[in-house]
Design a protein that fits this description.
The protein has 205 residues and is mainly α. The protein has two domains: 58 residues, Homeodomain-like (Arc Repressor Mutant, subunit A, Orthogonal Bundle); 141 residues, Tetracycline Repressor, domain 2, CATH 1.10.357.10. It is 75% helix and 0% strand. The chain has eleven helices and no strands. It starts with a helix and ends with a helix. GO terms for molecular function: DNA-binding transcription factor activity; transcription cis-regulatory region binding. Keywords: DNA-binding, Transcription, Transcription regulation. It comes from Streptomyces bathyalis. InterPro entries: ArpA-like, CprB_TetR_C, Homeodomain-like_sf, HTH-type_TetR-like_transc_reg, HTH_TetR, Tet_transcr_reg_TetR-rel_C_sf. This is TetR/AcrR family transcriptional regulator.
Length: 205
């Protein structure tokens, strides 16, 4: 029974992600989520107290919906992570819905910056490793740079979504790194970094 409950909850999250991703929070209907999940109203409300509770859970699940690329911690793994996210945002409905709800959350009715802070912590960890390996310029503040990178990434992906439904997002993130590397890494380190927009290369590590 416990396993069934876990599976039902995941079905609800995936169905909700589809609906929230397609039309946003306000247009989403609980009846449509129930239909796509193939569950009853009672089953849905057993796991989630309201549409708002469900939306917040989807938003907070975005980090867990992505497996980070392999490789040693540092600047290259950070670059690979952001490019992998670009590809995931083209296909991963749970991630896409979580990102959309995070951007629209003031319209939804909650205020929670934890999704941004979680990604900032992921980025900070890789930047800290990069600093230890001498991959960053002297004076780079990894905490502030991590927050800046999250802000830049949020803006770039949102612009790409509006302009072409994220079809060019990997290219735009690659452009972001081509310019950012000039400011944060020593010249030889920047030259050694691989900024590839090809998903199979990222999967291969």
């Amino acid at each position: 029974m416990q396993q069934r409950a876990v599976e039902t909850r995941q079905l609800i999250l995936e169905a909700a992600a589809e609906v929230f991703d397609e039309g946003g929070y306000k247009a989403a209907r609980i009846s449509e989520i129930m239909h796509r999940a193939g569950i009853t109203q009672g089953a849905l409300y057993f796991h989630f107290s309201s549409k708002l509770d469900l939306a917040r859970t989807v938003m907070l699940a975005q980090r867990d919906s992505v497996v980070l690329p392999p490789g040693p911690d540092g600047l290259q793994r950070l670059i690979d992570t952001t490019l992998l996210l670009a590809h995931e945002l083209q296909t991963n409905k749970l991630l896409r819905a979580g990102v959309r709800l995070a951007v629209e959350q003031e319209e939804v009715g909650f205020h929670d910056d934890s999704p941004y802070r979680e990604w900032a912590e992921v980025f900070r960890g890789q930047l800290a490793a990069a600093a230890e390996r001498g991959q960053l310029r002297s004076g780079v503040d990894v905490e502030r740079l991590a927050m800046l990178l999250v802000g830049c990434y949020t803006g770039v992906q949102h612009f790409s979504k509006l302009s072409c439904k994220r079809a060019d997002l990997p290219d735009r993130i690659a452009d972001l790194w081509q310019y950012m590397l000039l400011g944060i890494a020593p010249p030889q380190v920047a030259a050694d970094m691989i900024v590839s927009t090809e998903a199979p290369l990222l999967a291969a590590g």
